[in-house]
Design a protein that fits this description.
Shape: globular
Helix content: 40-55%
Strand order of the largest sheet: 2-1-3-4
Order of helices and strands: EHEHEHEHEEH
Number of domains: 1
Radius of gyration: 15 Å
Largest sheet: 4 strands, parallel
CATH superfamily: Lumazine/riboflavin synthase
Strand content: 15-25%
CATH architecture: 3-Layer(aba) Sandwich
Number of strands: 6
CATH topology: Rossmann fold
CATH class: Alpha Beta
Distance between the termini: 30 Å
Length: 160
């Protein structure tokens, strides 16, 4: 559970000495692009900081969070070691939020079962825009950073 106003996006890049040579895919939603662009920048910069070569980061963009699942399946064909899915769903006045969040979470879970590589859930599911801002580079850190760290950790685990 997120502690109020705590930035959870710090990491020790020294723990990723085995990350060099990994190929990482990032699938980013264009919906709520001000948020997802921040998530992407956090993830991309973290991968670079941890020793991933720029040419070994493959980026796909899809229209919305629902399409992240198909985008992840497509990027899988590029022979990557992990896939990071980045999206932002902000609650509105209808049940659409619930349907999309459940579908995306289950779809990414299913990819983790089906594929032989980790697929990371980096989708913000916030009650309002301010929460999304706070979690995409604001006072609560950047969940894109956390998704990248998780992808590296799981890819290294998968290589063992």
């Amino acid at each position: 559970m997120l502690e109020k106003h705590k930035n959870l996006s710090s990491y020790n890049k020294n723990q990723f000495s085995q990350a060099k040579g990994l190929k990482i895919g990032i699938v980013k939603s264009r919906w709520n692009k001000n948020i997802t662009n921040n998530l992407f920048e956090g993830a991309y910069n973290t991968l670079i900081d941890c020793g991933i070569n720029k040419k070994d980061i493959i980026k796909y963009e899809v229209p919305g969070s629902f399409e992240l699942i198909f985008g992840a399946m497509s990027i899988y064909k590029q022979n990557v070691d992990a896939i990071i899915c980045l999206g932002s769903v902000i609650k509105g006045d209808t049940k659409h939020f619930d349907f999309i969040c459940n579908a995306v979470a289950n779809g990414i879970k299913d990819l983790n079962i089906k594929l032989e590589i980790p697929v990371i859930f980096g989708v913000l599911t916030d009650n309002n825009l301010q929460q999304a801002i706070d979690r995409s580079g604001g006072k609560n850190g950047n969940k894109g950073v956390e998704a990248a760290v998780t992808a590296l950790e799981m890819a290294i685990l998968n290589k063992r």
